[in-house]
Amino acid sequence: MFTAWEDRGMRNEERTIRRWTATATVLAALALYALPSTALLAASNDNNVEWSGLFHDQGPLYDNHVEPTATQAVTLTLRTFKGDITSANIKYYDSADGQFHWVAMNWSANDATGNFDFWKGTVPASAAEKYYRFQVNDGSATAWLNAAGITSSEPSSGDFFVVPGFTTPAWMKNGVIYQVFPDRFYNGNTANDVTNGQYSYAGCATEKHAWGASVTSNAGGCNSAVFFGGDLAGVDQKLGYIKGTLGADILYLNPIFLSPTNHKYDTEDYLKVDPAFGTNTTLQALIGDMHSSSNGPRGYVILDGVFNHTGDTEAWFDRYHWSSVTGAYESQSSSYYSWYTFQSWPNSYSGFFGIASMPKLNYGSSGSAVRSAIYGSATSVVKTYLKAPYSIDGWRLDAAQYLDANGGDGSDATNHQIMAELRTAVKSANPDAEILGEFWGNAGPWTDNGEEWDGAMNYDGFMQPVSEWITGHDYGNGAASIPASQFDSWLRGTRAHYPTNVQQTMSNALGSHDTTRFGTRAGGDIWKTYLALIFQMTYVGTPTIYYGDEYGMQGGADPDNRRTFDWTVGTSTNSAVALASRLIAIRNAYPALRTGSFMTLLTDDASKLYAYGRFDAANRLAVVLNDDSVTHTVAVPVWQLSVTNGSRLVDQISGTSYTVQNGQVTLSVNGHYGAILAQ
């Protein structure tokens, strides 16, 4: 939405807890990953479970049905050091009977290196949601493994999910998002530009600024009245850059519907494209060109749905008497009066965080008129754009946690009921549509039951930790720095919040229209942008590029984070743009980078190094990142990925080839850069 301040206190508390509550035993286990393969000879039945040999996630080699139907049993694989354990069990909770159940695991095979054993067990099919963990035994010693990590005592949270019947869109898992703030991207039709003084709203007259000029208004406090002329025709004309030069295939547009402001988060008419951006026909043309495969990869379009509140100029409210319709602000007899919540009509009403220009919609009880208008009926806003002639591919839900009844602040049973109904509506119009919720913390309450969102804006599990590790600042540009080991612990902890198919559709951005620009947090150091791009394109989730972040665009807090795109920089000759393009191509070439397993390989706080593996049956990749300002030589333990000695790994960025010796690959990595080694 506008700013992140409303959730910051909660996020800071969660962040502090997450930083310092990672157990020393888990970190010790991660450190053991760096041991050479000769150390494995000590693994035996000696009443000691070797933690560094344990691995499971829900990648394709370890879970045969990540998205099972109600009739599909799920076979799970656990990895241990060869000959290390005496038995293993799956312990799972079944929501149908509220009980825990045990499944004994059996030895299945060894890996290609001969270092590891694989154990298998099967959770029986049913429609009920389940949660599981592993009990691993070596004689009298026991270790527990779940999504949150390895512990010596049984965990009470952080289990893996099994959610039968819940699928998330494959195109979202496999795609790359490009986010556009329409007024600031490209002016494709000067005839629809907003001019100086064209109209006034809330005491502010419109201002037309030259492309590249300041985003700050000439009249104090009127930044939302500043326009630059960017429009949908401009986005359409630059699809060659988005789809061709970069290779992104999902277009996410900030709000485009009629509104008196440049940001459009105060909707005046959901069924009309703002004239400054074009027409509804212009939108149809853009969607059609994005869907086309003649101008690059077949693409997808996600629109920003601002359904928590309207603008005060919406005819349903009509604070300024702009409409011929009698709005709720104008008369208590208005048919729309109950669509809002008044404490004392007309001037005291519930607004989004008390903002008078954004009166909250009252969703009332199930089947209310508001629910019908927004998502329930065949002619609702949500369904209108999911169906022809628009046929968009998904909705990003702005301030989604706050949709509620009677002016409440959401995040309660009513909100979840609304979101479940909205999901039913969306999927009835397009079963393959994406529902992407905005939430700044742990979005599990909306994703983990498979009945509400497909994924969320991953501020907590991606943007914040990446910013702190690489730039030493949080996404608001406040001082905050973490070493590689805490970065890895944070990532593991936040992945554990979600089912795997949700993790794979989380929107992973370096910045957004609500945060300080990543390039500014990085102090203008383009090499930090390089490093962030390498991580972004190889981590679990859907990479999301906020326009301009691919070349290190600068910008402070809102509205400065919404500067105009510099088309003299946004070209294939720019080193950062070229790298982003290369990284997207690498991601597209290796499914393991999209839906494969994720395994930590090493963390080195002193040298600021981080390495991890992404792998599936076809390929094994080791990603090595250097957050230091100087070059470091590092030995990467690729034996943990079951890569055999003598294997050849090629850095997909530089083209350099390496040979595995003694289970390791040794390479030098430039400061604030990385390598993607593929077998």
UniProtKB/TrEMBL annotation:
The domain of life is Bacteria
Where do the Glycosyl hydrolase family 13 catalytic domain residues begin and end?
A: 179-587
- InterPro entries documented for this protein: GH (IPR017853), GH13_cat_dom (IPR006047), Glyco_hydro_13_lg-like_dom (IPR004185), Glyco_hydro_b (IPR013780), Ig-like_fold (IPR013783), Ig_E-set (IPR014756)
Please verify whether the record's keywords include Hydrolase.
yes
User: One biological-process term from Gene Ontology?
Assistant: carbohydrate metabolic process
Q: Gene3D superfamilies from the entry?
A: Glycosidases, Golgi alpha-mannosidase II, Immunoglobulins
Q: Name one GO molecular function term.
A: hydrolase activity, hydrolyzing O-glycosyl compounds
What are the entry keywords? Answer: Glycosidase, Hydrolase
- CDD domains given in the database record: AmyAc_CMD, E_set_CDase_PDE_N
Q: What is this protein called?
A: Alpha-glucosidase
Species assigned in the record: Frateuria terrea
